[in-house]
Q: What sequence folds into this?
């Protein structure tokens, strides 16, 4: 495999596939082997954008998997399709990159993990924020002991696209991310699982308990291209509290209704010797407060340059994994299982809680 370019096959040609395909074209170790989507418009869009010939386009992913034109696969479909598609990929012994969340339940992800590990298949779950250089540097500082014993990790993940009107003033229609059948959960599984994985990644610690409150602001949205409406049956926001090993106190706030926010993240980690603040909107930034009493007493936070050794790229990292030279920092299917357990437990805690109105 390492002596030739990896021919990538892409199942699903929606928005996220653009970044997978683009990363493939930019890698010296990969090339586009084939693409697949059941929607002709999506297929044509990606084919035209990346100049993919007709003979390498499929509307049946099984046919693509059996075409002999691919060496590895990116699965970029809605969440509800991940499990059955990944099973077919694993059965054929193909390395795979799988979008998050890996499946709709931890039980499904565990099955994939066991089958993947039995065949010793290279794999990656696309927790993309593991590839932000500031997040990797934060991980280095924390796990090398620069903050000492950890006490708190607080996080926010805020987007605005769920608001009744989008930034261009048009109503946001009902899409698959608003339906439990296709997505499993809303903000919890879409955004929350990213933060759960990011917390695990930068601290090197596992969650020991989690509790969540979640809810829906808008219960009906117009169907695409129609005046009729459909039901939103997933969460628009979620707040989580819990613990990681240590213990480290955890606090997380996640929403799709944060006016003006695009893709805003903030993670703050507080230890006995210092603190760090990781922020992402357009660019990622790392700020620290550590090292001396004047800095601590003056509440002075300083932005720090990130060494280039922490630069990384998701699709190039997948190519390195397939070629047996990965750096060990990408998320595996086993990481997908660990994080899915936290999401499942958070949702279950909300479902099973005794909730009473406050009078």
A:
């Amino acid at each position: 495999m390492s002596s030739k370019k990896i021919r990538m096959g892409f199942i699903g040609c929606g928005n996220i596939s653009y970044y997978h395909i683009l990363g493939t074209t930019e890698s010296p170790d990969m090339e586009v082997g084939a693409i697949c989507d059941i929607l002709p418009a999506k297929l044509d869009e990606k084919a035209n954008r990346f100049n993919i010939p007709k003979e390498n386009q499929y509307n049946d992913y099984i046919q693509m998997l059996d075409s002999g034109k691919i060496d590895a696969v990116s699965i970029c479909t809605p969440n509800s399709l991940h499990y059955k598609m990944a099973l077919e990929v694993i059965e054929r012994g193909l390395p795979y990159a799988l979008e998050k969340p890996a499946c709709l339940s931890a039980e499904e992800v565990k099955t994939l993990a066991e089958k993947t590990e039995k065949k010793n298949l290279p794999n990656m779950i696309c927790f993309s924020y593991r590839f932000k250089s500031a997040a990797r540097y934060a991980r280095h500082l924390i796990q090398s002991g620069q903050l000492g014993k950890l006490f708190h990790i607080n996080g926010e993940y805020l987007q605005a696209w769920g608001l009744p009107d989008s930034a261009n003033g048009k109503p946001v229609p009902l899409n698959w991310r608003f339906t439990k059948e296709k997505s499993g959960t809303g903000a919890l599984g879409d955004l929350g699982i990213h933060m759960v994985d990011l917390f695990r990644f930068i601290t090197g610690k596992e969650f020991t308990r989690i509790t969540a409150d979640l809810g829906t602001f808008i219960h009906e949205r117009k169907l695409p291209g129609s005046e009729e409406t459909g039901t939103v049956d997933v969460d628009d926001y979620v707040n989580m509290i819990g613990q990681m090993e240590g213990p480290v106190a955890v606090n997380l706030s996640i929403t799709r209704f944060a006016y003006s926010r695009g893709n805003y993240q903030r993670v703050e980690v507080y230890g006995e010797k210092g603190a760090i603040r990781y922020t992402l909107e357009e660019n990622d930034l790392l700020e620290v407060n550590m090292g001396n009493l004047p800095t601590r007493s003056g509440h002075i936070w300083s932005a720090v340059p990130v060494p280039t050794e922490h630069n990384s790229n998701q699709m190039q990292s997948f190519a390195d994994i397939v070629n047996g030279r990965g750096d060990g920092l990408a998320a595996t299917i086993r990481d997908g299982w660990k994080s899915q357990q936290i999401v499942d437990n958070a949702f279950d805690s909300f479902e099973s809680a005794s909730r009473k109105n406050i009078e």
Observations:
- The chain has a mean pLDDT of 95.
- The longest helix spans residues 333-352.
